[in-house]
Every structure is written in C-alpha cells, then in structure tokens.
Design brief:
Layout lengths: L28 H9 L4 E5 L17 E4 L5 E6 L3 H8 L6 E9 L8 E13 L4 H12 L10 E15 L2 E5 L1 H6 L9 H11 L1 H7 L7 E8 L2 E7 L5 E7 L7 H14 L2
C-alpha cells in the first residue's frame, strides 16, 4: 500500500487526548479529512527525500489550498520552494508527497491539538487549461491569498490515500471516499462560533456539564451534528462530553436555533 510517511495507528502525538466512548451521530472519516483539507488550519507539504536548502520557517507551508470536484488537492507554493523546484523536474505521477494538516482548537483548553490528517499522493504542476479553473478554486477558498504567477506555483496533489487521527478516533480514508465526501457546512465559521460561545455563553456552556462536577468547561468542537465540550479540574483531569442537536444543521441560521434548543433543555 502506498504510504509515504503516513504514521501507523497508535503513533499520534496526542495520545492523551480525551476520547470517550460515544453513541452519537458523527461525520465520517472521509468528511473529517475533507473538512480539514478545505479549512484554513495549518498544513505542511513534504516530499520524502527532498531536502530544504537552508533554514526557512515557511518551508513546506502552502500559501493556499483547495480541493477540486474530482478530489485532488491544489496547493499554492512559492515558485522557488523546494516543492515547486523538485516537482518541475520530476516525471509526471512519480513524485510522492504527503500533506499533514494540524487542527488546533480556537479556544483555550487542555490538549489544544484536536487532531491531524495526512493526505498522501503524487504531486504534479498544474498546467495548461487547468490553471484558470484551479486559480478560481484557490481564490474562492482563500480570497486574501496571493495569486499564482511568476513568483508562485500551483501544484496538484492526486490523493493516493488519507488518514485521520482526531477527536473521533483514527481511521484510514480511501481516495474515492475522500473525493465523494463534502466538508462540514459549519467548518468555515467554526472558529468564530466557538470563540463566541466561549466569550458570550460561558455560563451556559458550563451548565451543560454541571452534573459532571468539572471546575471549568469550554466549547471544543462544533459540526452539523452537535457540540463537543471539554471539562477539566485543577488536577488537570479532563473529559469531553458530546451534545447532539435534535436534527443536523446546514447553516449558521440553523445552528442558532439548535443552540437555543440545546441550552433550553440543558443538554
């Protein structure tokens, strides 16, 4: 199986991350990877065996990324980056690469790294007639990002396999499943929504977990199916509790109604 640098199950750095056994509706592993791939959270693109010349803190960090309808990941990198240079001289479909995406909670909680996803595949330059369409995708995904040109290069990562290790668990994802999946409809607004809940509704969030006796609680993650809250005490012990919405939500407007209902029934 093609696995250039994807870690095996059990090697995740966040092994202390609370993972309660839950009987809850949840996004599939493919949806979770697709959500992270199309998000703005930190990503690192590496080519096994390709060495970076000199120290560069931005090495391997795409300036923007997007996913095509067919499930390829388009990344924008500096034209003089090792990724662009190696890709330009490689034979098509011969250059193996791995993109690691790190998801960090946008609010202050213990164990802030919520998960990681790895997407491995083959890297090629975006050429010819595809350039305009890929540039539009990047502009839609990251409106403030630089545009492709003489100083920047668009690369295509054809997905060979993917792997996610997050709050829901660890699981492999096949390329077809990744291509068919959709990102969570709340993903683009999740950070802002969680920060708002933590700042303006802290007591209501804590009230959801009152029966568990935690000294502190904060909203940790939000998706169309529900809200995850992390509670902890002075000794550092913590546990996540999941609160399902009555129905999956498809928009921020639907979320407002779902959260009102959740707070009204106390979880």
């Amino acid at each position: 199986m093609f696995r250039p640098g994807i870690p095996l199950p059990g090697t995740h750095a966040e092994e202390e991350q609370p993972r309660p056994v839950e009987d809850a509706r949840q996004p599939t592993a493919a949806e979770r990877v697709r959500t992270l791939a199309q998000s703005s959270v930190s990503a690192l693109l590496t080519i096994p065996g390709a060495a970076q010349a000199g120290p560069d803190p931005a090495a391997g960090i795409p300036e923007a990324r997007a996913v095509t309808p067919g499930g390829d990941v388009i990344v924008l990198v500096a034209a003089d980056s090792v990724e662009a240079r190696v890709c330009a001289y490689a034979q098509d479909d011969d250059l193996a690469a791995v993109m690691e995406i790190t998801d960090v909670a946008p609010v202050s909680v213990p164990h802030r790294v919520r998960g990681r996803a790895w997407i491995a595949g083959w890297l090629t330059p975006v050429r010819g007639d595809e350039r305009a369409a890929c540039a539009r995708l990047l502009a839609e995904a990251a409106p403030s990002a630089p545009v492709a040109g003489s100083s920047r290069q668009m690369l295509r990562l054809e997905v060979g396999e993917a792997y996610v290790d997050d709050l829901w668990g660890a699981e492999e994802v096949e390329p077809d499943a990744f291509a068919d999946a959709s990102p969570d409809p709340l993903a683009a607004h999740e950070a802002e929504l969680l920060q708002h809940l933590a700042a303006a509704h802290a007591e209501q969030v804590r009230a959801l977990c009152a029966c568990q006796g935690w000294e502190r609680a904060a909203p940790l993650a939000l998706d169309r199916f529900g809200l995850r809250v992390r509670g902890w005490n002075a000794a550092g012990a913590c546990l996540d509790t999941r609160f399902d919405f009555a129905e999956p939500v498809a928009s921020v407007a639907g979320l407002r109604h779902a959260m009102h209902s959740l707070f009204a029934r106390g979880g």
